[in-house]
Structure formats: C-alpha cells, structure tokens
Known about the structure:
Blueprint: E1 5-8, H1 18-31, H2 39-45, H3 50-60, H4 67-82, H5 95-104, E2 108-112, H6 117-126, E3 135-137, H7 149-159, E4 166-170, H8 173-182, E5 186-189, E6 205-207, H9 213-220
Parallel strand pairs: 1-2, 1-4, 2-3, 4-5, 5-6
Amino acid sequence: MSRTALAFDLDGTLIDSAPDLCAALNRLLTELDRPPVTLAQVKGFIGDGVRLLVGRALTATGDEAPEDETARHVARFLDIYEAIPATPAQLYPGVDETLARLKADGFRLGLCTNKPQQATDILLPQLGLGGVFDCVVGGDALPVRKPDAGHLQAVLDRLGGIRADSAMIGDNENDAAVAAGCGVPFIAMAYGYPRVPVAELGAALVLERFADLPDALKTLA
Length: 221
C-alpha cells in the first residue's frame, strides 16, 4: 500500500526556526538581566516544547526559576516569539514545492509539532503554508506530546491513516520515537536539529534534500 498519510515535524524539518527562537530567547534573557545564548545552544534546546526550551535557556544562563516564575517567562517568551514575523525564506529548500506536489497528488498531510498550537497557527500562513495541512496538532493541543506516540496517533487518526499507509517525517529522536510507537516508518531529514547522530535514529530512510521525499516514499510502498 502507498504511504499516503504523511505526518511532518515542523522545526528542523520544514523550517529553520532556530534564528527566530534564539532572538526571542535572548530578548527575554535581556529583560531578566541574563547573558545571551548562542544559536548553537538553541538548536540543542529545540524539540521538546516551549516549556523545556525556555527552561534550558534559563539553566544555561544561571539557575532555572521556580515553576510559577518559569510559567510567566514562557508566556513572555511566546509574546515575543509570536510577534516576530516569519517569511517563506525560513522554509528549507524545496519544502513549499514538494508539499504542494504531494497535496496535488492526493497525499493527506498532517503536522505533528511540539510547538504550541497558537504559535503554529500564526506561523503557517506567514510561511505560505496556510491550508496545506489537513490537520495541525501542536504541542499543547493534547494531554500528551512527542515523544509520546499518542501525539502522532492523533494526527494519523485525523488523517484517516492506518499503519500500512502512513509515515512520519522529522529530524530528531522524538520524531523517531513516535513513529516507532505507532509502528510506522520514520524518514529523517539530515539537515535538522538532531541531538544524536542521525544514523542512530533508526530511520527507514535518511534524506539530505526535502525535494527527494516523493521518490523516497515510493520505496516504502
């Protein structure tokens, strides 16, 4: 059976969001009289949701704040981040054309991201991806998020996908974990923000270019 129900990660898979995340974190840290973090550090912080993103930045620049203070810092970070305009230039090469081709060919496309739902919904139209996905499930839309397989399963359910016709496309260990938990193939993009070597993610395929995805899917059919 063809793999026609496709779930995608966002950060590090479809878009290079690290520069904007770094800018927003550093504005927050400046307000807190803390030193800035580097882009390389931020790439290592990405992938587990906004609470851990901000918490890691706080830990890297001093002590992590008590939970109630951290919650306020997270809210402030989101205010800053959501106000930064995104552009299609943040898409990795070939993403917009390839997603459009897949959609035109009848693939069902879903987004499975740990980025908060509101931030994701704001971002997608700015990236030129408004209306591309048949469902979008952010990191705070459910009681669970990646690496819990329930996050991906919710996306696949909304796409009407079953194990035999589904695949997960991402860039890090959380994406690999949800794919394994749902029993579907994982396709890893080699250019993203993995915190372990891509070769250790257990991917069915590793792609250097997003534009190679349509042909790669044929090998999984």
